[in-house]
Design a protein that fits this description.
Layout: E1 2-6, E2 9-12, E3 17-24, E4 32-38, E5 45-50, E6 57-59, E7 67-71, E8 77-82, E9 91-98, E10 112-113, E11 117-122
Parallel strand pairs: 2-11
Antiparallel strand pairs: 1-3, 3-8, 4-5, 4-9, 5-6, 7-8, 9-10, 9-11
């Protein structure tokens, strides 16, 4: 599975951004997909995940009510709609894939990773 993340940028606090992750490869439409982020000097942390069917989603408490994860009907593109952004959301955002939604919050359980996209929220 190959993953390509896009959509990052600079936005003011309270603004919105939409991240996309395009998945390709033989099993890309069935794999669970997740978003993680990593700020300078911090560990990579879970943001949100969605099952292969798109029926099951999980989000970190820190983004609930502000971020929405989804995937298209072909199941090969995942989107993270980020609203009401805060300076503490500033990080490099990575998309990742694993065979199922189990262990969705554990980065070490993901088999494939995209290259990351920078999100910067100014105060």
């Amino acid at each position: 599975v190959q993953l390509q993340a896009s959509g990052g940028g600079l936005v003011q606090a309270g603004g919105s951004l939409r991240l996309s992750c395009a998945a390709s490869g033989r099993t890309s439409s069935t794999y669970a997909l997740g978003w993680f982020r990593q700020a300078p000097g911090k560990e990579r942390e879970f943001v949100a995940a969605i099952s292969g069917s798109g029926a099951i989603t999980y989000s970190a408490d820190s983004v609930k009510g502000r971020f929405t994860i989804s995937r298209d009907n072909a199941k090969t593109t995942m989107t993270l709609q980020m609203n009401s952004l805060k300076p503490e959301d500033t990080a490099v955002y990575f998309c990742a894939a694993r065979p199922n939604i189990n262990y969705y919050g554990q980065p070490k359980k993901y088999d494939y990773w995209g290259q990351g996209t920078q999100v910067t929220v100014s105060s």
